[in-house]
Amino acid sequence: MSGLFFTGAFIMRGAGCTINDLWDRNLDPHVERTRFRPIARGAISTEKAVVFAGFQLLAGLGVLLQFPLECLWYGIPSLLLVTTYPLAKRITNYPQAVLGLTFSWGAIMGFPALGMDLLTNPDALEVAAALYCSCVSWTILYDMIYAHMDKKDDISAGIKSIALRHEHNTKTILSGLATVQVALLGTAGVAAGAGPIFFIGSCGSAILSLGVMIWRVQLDNVRNCWWWFKNGCLLTGGGITLGMFCEYLAQTFGLYKHEKHITQNQQ
């Protein structure tokens, strides 16, 4: 199941990039960081890019069909977000929020994949909602750092951005997003009946990694923003994942007597 999710995320992330580059083919040439992308520099025609995106979406559908049928109905709405996200930067200063709604969809998909219908299981819905919103906050956080790399070019190209809207209080916003992310991650753990390993490993590591990233990132330094965007994301995500995996092992092998709240209600 994890392998299918990894494959599906990899394919749909690629499809999102293709669609984004199609929408931005007339904007990317004006931004230093993106002007050498294949479509922007004319290495790939728009027609071929559309065909390629079609094959990516078909491959993603093929992966989705490997899951229980319920996942199909939960997965299809995400396509609307995938295809329209690039438009957000043209109409709002907060396109990162739309990106967060898009990237975090897997937090919802995991439940029907394991046979939990969110519409009929309020306990599972509580966990899914908290986890999803936590991931949305996290995405906005790290993409806000990413957006600082393009501030000068975005102004000249007329691209809207959260980095421009909150250029003078970015670290305050980042700190708020980090607090919300960890609080909601902890809420998901409480609702799911997670044990201390999750809270120490996942929530604790997120607090540490996010705190260091927000403290150390130099928002006016393009290379520094890129380093923290790339590595900070991996450090935070790696810590959360490792904490969840250790919690799973602890419950599987009975290191402490504990039953998940969701499972009790299902029984």
Secondary structure tally: strands: 0
Radius of gyration: 20 Å
Q: Give the rounded overall mean pLDDT.
A: 90
Quaternary structure state of the chains depicted: single chain
- Summing up helix and strand content along with how strands pair, one would put the structural category as mainly alpha
Q: What count of structural domains?
A: 2
**N-to-C CA distance:** 23 Å
**Largest beta-sheet characterization:** none
- Could you name the ranges where pLDDT drops below 50 across 5 or more consecutive residues? none
What does the overall shape look like? globular
Membrane topology: Multi-pass membrane protein
Pfam family, one: UbiA
Family: Belongs to the UbiA prenyltransferase family.
Keywords: Membrane, Transferase, Transmembrane, Transmembrane helix
Structure in words:
The mean pLDDT is 90. The protein is an all-alpha fold. The chain has two domains: 1-66, no CATH class; 93-266. It contains 13 helices and no strands. The protein has helices at residues 2-23, 46-64, 69-75, 78-91, 95-103, 106-113, 122-147, 151-157, 162-165, 170-192, 196-216, 222-252, 261-266. The chain starts with a helix and ends with a helix.
Q: What's the SSE blueprint?
A:
Elements: H1 2-23, H2 46-64, H3 69-75, H4 78-91, H5 95-103, H6 106-113, H7 122-147, H8 151-157, H9 162-165, H10 170-192, H11 196-216, H12 222-252, H13 261-266
GO biological process, one term: ubiquinone biosynthetic process
Keywords: Membrane, Transferase, Transmembrane, Transmembrane helix
Organism: Aspergillus sclerotialis
